[in-house]
Design a protein that fits this description.
Radius of gyration: 29 Å
Order of helices and strands: H
Number of strands: 0
Helix content: 55-70%
Length: 77
C-alpha cells in the first residue's frame, strides 16, 4: 500500500512538472525574448530618427552648414 501511494505521488509530480512547470517556463522565456527584440528595434529606430533630425551631428568639425540646406523650425502642438 505504501508503494502504491509513492507511485501515485511520483506520477502526479511528474505530470505537474512536465505539463505545467516546463511549458510555463518555456513560454516565459519566449515572451521575454520577444520583448527584448522589440525593445532593441525601438532603440534602433530612435537612433535612426535622431540621426535624421539632427544632421549637424554627423558633420565633421570645421565644416560649414549651407544656410539653404537646413531650415530651423518650431514644432507646433
Amino acid at each position: 500500500m505504501k508503494y502504491l501511494l509513492y507511485a501515485i505521488l511520483i506520477y502526479l509530480a511528474y505530470q505537474f512538472v512536465f505539463r505545467l512547470v516546463i511549458p510555463v517556463y518555456l513560454a516565459s522565456r519566449k515572451i521575454k525574448k520577444g520583448f527584448r527584440e522589440m525593445q532593441d528595434k525601438v532603440v534602433e529606430q530612435m537612433r535612426q530618427q535622431q540621426d535624421f533630425t539632427n544632421p549637424s551631428a554627423k558633420q565633421k568639425p570645421g565644416q560649414k552648414i549651407n544656410p539653404g540646406d537646413y531650415i530651423e523650425f518650431e514644432e507646433v502642438k
